[in-house]
Amino acid sequence: MSSLASRLMPAVMTLRGSKRVFSSADAMKRKLARQAAGRAPNSRPPARLAKTVDIRELSIDGWTVYEITPKGKTPPRRALYLHGGCYVFEIALQHWLFVARLAVETDTRFLVPIYPLAPAETADTIVPKATALASSLIDEVGARNTSILGDSAGGGMALAVAMQLRDRGIEAPHSTVLVSPWLDITGTDPQLAVIAPHDPWLAVPGSHFAGGVYRGPLAETDARVSPIYGDLSGLGSLTMFSGTRDILNADATRFLSLAEAAGLSVDYHEVPGMIHVFPILPIPEGTAARAVVARSMVD
Fold first, then answer.
1. What CA–CA distance (Å, rounded) separates 211 from 230?
2. Which tens digits make up the pLDDT trace of 139-166?
3. Which residue(s) pair with 150 in the sheet?
4. CB atoms within 10 A of CB 234
5. Could you give the CA distance from residue 32 to residue 209 in angstroms, rounded to a whole number?
6. Which terminal Cβ of the chain has fewer Cβ within 10 Å, N or C?
7. Adjacent-strand bridge partners of 269
8. If you average pLDDT over every residue of the chain, what do you get?
9. What is the CATH number of the domain that holds 189?
10. What's the DSSP call for residue 218?
11. How many domains does the structure of the chain reveal?
């Protein structure tokens, strides 16, 4: 049985009006216009993280990148975390808490890039830069000690990075973790219409508009923006999470059949009734999912 906290989450999202910005292309366009005209969103790690992790700010290839390390340790493992936000919204508190907890639980040093939000940069430059970060970690400690993680849009980017590593002849990381990944920005899967009325957070029109901003000059089906259309062979071990009250569950279930056909191993965790990115939310199901993520990184 699902926890009380998880059963309350849809109501919380509804009361916050979380779905409103995704309800239409115009709503998303207005949101992005207000964001561009206002103060730059805060992308710094919250101060409270310093109780458990050491934080170092780096500048790599024009990006601000934060290094998150268990306090006072020199860990043997490395991980790249790519945050969600529809490619147009900044990293949020729940991302930082998820990373900090995993860093401590797995004795891993994380790199968290604050990649420029679309349209300041788009997939044609963002994915290669993220791939270079992943490659640098593999060079440092080896693929066996490296993981790539991402949630939502960051999950789609993580899969695109894994593809780019393969195409460059770089050994696949030990673990690639996709949390409620956005794998297809086209918004054409018929299953989306079935799930959408039950999703308290996301809707196709607004997300499709944001995806269009992110893809820039690339086609919607280019594997750098919609990795579900790419070659799935030779990507190593994948762990994936999805909830059934999330429109991106359509991406996850379609991906599974394609992955099987490509001979790709996917440790898939679908939880009935869960909403988008439930593994990073402050609910018991999120804690349980994080334990699975940690095992995938260290086993």
1. 17
2. 999 999 999 999 999 999 999 999 999 9
3. 82, 178
4. 14
5. 11
6. N
7. 241
8. 97
9. 3.40.50.1820
10. S
11. 1
Taking 90 as the threshold, does the pLDDT of residue 1 lie above it?
Answer: no
Length of the chain: 299
Residue 67 belongs to what H/E stretch?
A: strand 63-70
Buried b (16+ CB within 10 A) or exposed e, 146-165: bbbbbbbbbbbbbbbbbbbb
Buried b (16+ CB within 10 A) or exposed e, 63-75: bebbbbbbeeeeb
Classified as helix, coil or strand, 295 is helix
pLDDT at 124 over 90: yes
What domain range is 67 assigned to?
Answer: 4-298
Q: pLDDT tens, 214-266? A: 999 999 999 999 999 999 999 999 999 999 999 999 999 999 999 999 999 99
- Sheet with 108-114, edge to edge strand ranges: 53-60, 63-70, 108-114, 77-82, 146-151, 175-179, 238-243, 266-271
